[in-house]
Specification:
It is built from no helices and 10 strands. The chain has about 110 residues and is an all-beta fold. It has a 6-stranded mixed beta sheet with strand order 2-10-9-4-5-6, with no helix packed on it. The protein has a 4-stranded antiparallel beta sheet with strand order 1-3-8-7, with no helix packed on it. Strand 4 and strand 5 form a beta hairpin. The radius of gyration is 13 Å and the shape is globular. The model has no long low-confidence stretch (mean pLDDT about 95).
């Protein structure tokens, strides 16, 4: 059974950094790679970043240049390094196997001004 677990969320001030981690269960293989999405209160779930199975990254325009996605082999998953955080980055962040309905439970990121 596919299991994705996010961690690393927290509260930071604007300009700060956080690193989110998505760990997949040992028997999980996301064939098309993994993605991060986020959902702010009262809004839909938006794409943030993805890493293909060929390790090609992709970013939403709003985070490009500030966020970095990379493979985390130790956790069979991916991490998301978030720098220069802004209050508008505040959201619940979710990990997903690309192209599937397999999602983690999310980790909260709160950025204060």
């Amino acid at each position: 059974q596919v299991q994705l677990v996010e961690s690393g969320g927290g509260s930071v001030q604007a300009g700060g950094s956080l690193t989110l981690s998505c760990a997949a269960s040992r028997d999980t293989y996301c064939r098309d790679g993994m993605s991060w999405y986020r959902q702010a209160p009262g809004k839909g779930r938006d794409f943030v970043s993805s890493l293909s199975s060929e390790l090609h990254p992709n970013y939403a325009a709003s985070v490009k240049g500030r966020f970095t996605i990379a493979r985390d082999n130790a956790k069979n998953g991916v991490y998301l390094q978030m720098n220069s955080l802004k209050p508008e980055d505040t959201a619940m962040y979710y990990c997903r196997c690309r192209g599937t309905d397999y999602w983690g439970q999310g980790t909260q990121v709160t950025v204060s001004s």
